[in-house]
Amino acid sequence: MKRFIITEEFWELFPKAEIAIILAKGINNSEELSEDVRPDIIEMLEKSNKNAKKFLTEDVFSKNKVISVWRDAYKQFKTKKGARCSIEALLKRIDKGNDVGAINPLVDIYNTVSLTYGLPCGGEDIDNFEGDMLLTKANGNEAFLALGDEEYNNALPGEIIYKDDAGAVCRCWNWRDGQRTMLTEDTTNAFLIIESIDPTRSGDLKEATQLLAELTCKFLGGSATITYMNKENRELKL
Fold it and tell me: Does the pTM of the predicted model rise above 0.85?
């Protein structure tokens, strides 16, 4: 059975990190079959775009707490130049007056939760994993074809990545997903992730995770199981 493992190399850098995983299985993520609920999902996303402004209270964008905590984290490992945490990318759009738009039902749901709580959320298609999934330091040159790219841009030595036997799944921790395991309309089994490196936000992480699990089942069907991972609980069967 496939596993998700957070390795010691990761915990040496981030001993207080908390990673929430939702295994959403038997879902229906197609636009056609979710047509009846699509307006509700888009309405939620639109509201979250407006509500996310509550995280932007500082004159200097990088000084906002939900941004600065991740800026500091990204200084702890090798990154591609210009790589930023996914929540920073979303909030940068909000700061510039550009709403985060619709992509597909499940991505819109986790973006809604991400914007609502100011926490990075992501998702991958479990059925496209090759062997175990790891959150670890890259050896370097793990194959990676980012969403929207036509050429491979592989991982750097020492970079924190999600990876499996076939290569990198998400580079620079939660910066960019790859095409191989991305969520599509054909996804029926999803690996959903919410991450926190601020111990004061454990409550927010749990609320966000519960909401993401509930909304996924409400709108897309299937089942959702939640696991909270930390230094003492670092392995999960998929």
Answer: yes
